[in-house]
Amino acid sequence: MKEFVISEAQTEKAVLVGLITQTQNERKTNEYLDELAFLAETAGAEVVSRFTQKLDTPNSVTYVGKGKLSEIREYLQSREEEGEEIGMVIFDDELSAKQIRNIENELKVKILDRTSLILDIFAMRAQTANAKTQVELAQYKYMLPRLQRLWTHLERQGGGSGAGGGKGSVGLRGPGETQLEMDRRIILNRMSLLKQRLADIDTQKSTQRKNRGRLIRVALVGYTNVGKSTLMNLMAKSDVFAENKLFATLDTTVRKVIIENLPFLLSDTVGFIRKLPTDLVESFKSTLDEVREADLLLHVVDISHPDFEEQIKVVDKTIADLGAGGKPTILVFNKIDAYTYVKKDADDLTPKTKENVTLEELMNTWMAKLNDNCIFISAKSKANFEQLKTMLYKKVRELHVQKYPYNDFLYQTYDEE
Ligand SMILES: Nc1nc2c(ncn2[C@@H]2O[C@H](COP(=O)(O)OP(=O)(O)OP(=O)(O)O)[C@@H](O)[C@H]2O)c(=O)[nH]1
Ligand SMILES: [Mg+2]
Which superfamily does CATH assign the domain made up of 214-416 to? Predict the structure, then answer.
């Protein structure tokens, strides 16, 4: 049966909110908001405005200050009077149940934070049973503490005035505690079912992995949207979904690649992002087993992104959190075709900033820093692609000989040359 499609689906309009704090200056906040806007667009929303506020730390009650919240409310109202409906406000940091409730009461629109937005995209992207189960589990994990806090809050509100106190004050009469306790139990049951399902999938997958034979395993890792899938397609002549959207890939794909006469396994997996809560990453454990069990990591970096250095750090940290740190790694700086820099005039004596660095200078710095364990390519124009293949050949062969010393028949033709 054909699915019902809404032909001219209206895109939901959204407003973004971020904080400028002691640890996050204005430039950083703007970069984070650019990324949040990209996430929102990926989820199908249109960003119409942004609000920022300078605060030492987020306000525990409303995230931003009271004044800023009123400013946002007035903005939403004025747009509504002009006939433009803004359906949601998205905050750049994870919000507590209390913050969500207070902000919602004030703004009367849907309130999302970075985590729930990412979860939304994950849910949209999930294709396989494995990915779907993982996303559902992650969504419940996100919901559960928020439910709990809501429950404690109601208990305080309702029962605070002595025995037999009311069931919550006006405007705060949510579902009663029995209902919430029930919801909690249903969710917990569902979560253990999902965990069991994932454990079954895990067993299946690890059996599959064991049956793959004595081949070196290489994993493509990196920030989201850097070109991992594009590179996978190029190497494996495969057809992995790649596009200019965040989290285009959710599940892991494994392909056999042969360079010269040396076969190895290459896997492509979910990209990482800033401010991704660790237990969300944890929910993708089985997807990320491929990374954990890899012999070699190809850490792909988008060198044309103004923030690529921070992205490298985020990826390194996530890999360490997954318990996959310290593996042999090659940094693959991708998108050299899109790298731009601002040339300084000879008489311009202002200090050189990172925007003024040429690609060549950048290459030299990183090659020195990484002992040549890096390469600069363009998966789009295929620049230096042959070099990457040669590099991979050498590295994989080295690892293969170490790991399977008696299985060197693979290279005979090459050795005889
Ligand atoms: N200019 C340029 N664009 C590239 C290059 N490689 C990939 N891209 C583009 O970058 C975007 C992201 O590519 P993907 O391969 O989907 O990236 P990914 O790392 O798999 O992303 P996720 O799966 O979302 O984490 C696509 O629009 C690609 O066409 C390159 O070398 N140069
Ligand atoms: Mg991808």
Answer: P-loop containing nucleotide triphosphate hydrolases (3.40.50.300)
Q: Give the model confidence (pLDDT) of 311-330 as tens digits.
A: 999 999 989 988 889 999 99
Q: CA nearest 11: which of 37, 47, 35? A: 47
Contact (CB, 8 A) for 230 and 242:
yes
Q: Which of 85-89, 237-241, 358-362 has the lowest mean pLDDT?
A: 237-241
Ligand 1 within 6 A of CB of 380: yes
Report helix, strand or coil for 365. Answer: helix
Calpha distance 21→27 (Å, rounded): 11
Cβ of residue 338 lying under 6 Å from some atom of ligand 1 = yes
> Tokens representing 105?
């009461």
- Listing DSSP states for 311-324 in one string gives HHHHHHHHHHHTT-
Answer whether 0.85 is exceeded by the pTM.
no
CA distances for 206 relative to 54, 198, 202, 290, 376, angstroms: 49, 12, 6, 10, 34
Domains 12-122 and 214-416 share a fold: yes
The atom of ligand 1 lying closest to the CA of 225 is: 21
The answer to whether 183 and 147 are in contact (CB under 8 A) is yes
